[in-house]
Design brief:
Elements lengths: L1 E8 L4 H4 L6 H20 L4 E7 L13 E4 L3 E4 L4 H4 L4 E4 L2 H11 L6 E3 L6 H10 L7 E6 L9 H17 L3 E7 L16 H12 L3 H5 L3 H8 L6 H10 L4 E10 L4 E9 L2
Parallel strand pairs: 1-8, 2-7, 2-8, 3-6
Antiparallel strand pairs: 1-10, 3-7, 4-5, 9-10
Helix pairs in contact: 4-6, 6-10
This protein binds fe (ii) ion.
Fe (ii) ion (FE2) binds next to loops.
């Protein structure tokens, strides 16, 4: 039927796992941003949520790493992380295999996409769902971009992936919500963890929210690695959503560097009109 919602958010495991260590003011403002996004998602009355997420070596590894992959199952287990660490209990999240199959088939017309009938969620999807669909009652179609193991898909292909997703979202009868989730500048699991390049983040978000395609595609992996760390490669998820929402007005609802969460925590939405 149509794209009825499009949002962007981070998925830092600290958002849930290290909540008590954060300064309450920005933490609670982040949570309020998630709550606003949850209400907007519910108001849109979607039949399914397509989540464009970043690989963390949870499902795919260097023996066989797809550039783009889409889950094609009727349910997904997760998160895989220790609940004592992530503070999210493992659960089963509904999928929609038939919808996934139609999305995969249509995206394949434009972008070579892998599919997987077995897919475990990690914090990259589980943290956003914890805040946005806390009852786990909205079917999810997980999509994945290799942001982890170079060579990474070029940014123009991530944009094209978003465009391909949008074409099929507009063609299926269901009401579809789209969420892109990634950290922007961050240096996870390195001695620099906790470092955040706020200026880089804000400039990148400006380009995303205003769909400045040429300026988005002008980033090189070398620039991103230098300025935004290896975690910054997750920018691809936002580039895909920008490609999927051309013409919409983007709005930044929350951005705040929260070092104990190791990212500039971000909540944004695309006003689809
Ligand atoms: Fe991540």
């Amino acid at each position: 039927m149509a794209l009825v919602f499009a949002g962007l958010c981070g998925h830092g495991p600290g958002f849930t796992g290290r909540a008590e260590l954060a300064d309450p003011e920005p933490r609670d403002a982040l949570y309020a941003g998630f709550e606003r996004l949850r209400l907007a998602l519910e108001d849109a009355k979607p039949d399914a949520l397509v989540v464009v997420a970043a690989e963390h070596f949870a499902n795919f590894f260097m023996d066989n790493m797809p550039a783009f992959a889409i889950g094609m199952a009727d349910s997904y287990e997760g998160p895989i992380e220790d609940p004592d660490w992530l503070k999210i209990e493992p659960t089963s999240v509904p999928g929609n295999k038939d919808l996934s199959r139609r999305i995969v088939s249509a995206v394949m017309q434009d972008v070579d996409v892998a599919y997987a009938e077995e897919w475990k969620f990690d914090h990259g999807i589980a943290v956003p769902l914890h805040f946005l669909t806390p009852r786990y009652d909205l079917p999810v179609v997980p999509a994945n971009i290799n942001c982890q193991g170079p060579p990474l898909p070029p940014l123009h292909r991530c944009w094209a992936f978003g465009e391909a997703l949008r074409r099929v979202i507009d063609a299926v009868p269901e009401r579809i919500a789209l969420l892109g989730t990634g950290g922007i500048s961050h240096w996870p699991a390195t001695p620099d963890s906790g470092k955040i390049n706020e200026a880089w983040d804000r400039e990148f978000l400006e380009r995303v929210l205003n769909h400045r395609r040429d300026e988005l595609l002008a980033y090189t992996d070398e620039d991103v690695y230098r300025d935004a760390g290896q975690g910054g490669f997750e920018m691809r998820t936002y580039v895909a959503v920008a490609g999927a929402t051309q013409g919409a007005e983007g709005e930044l609802w929350f951005y705040e560097p929260i070092p104990v969460f190791a990212v500039g925590a971000t909540i944004a939405a695309m006003n689809l009109g």
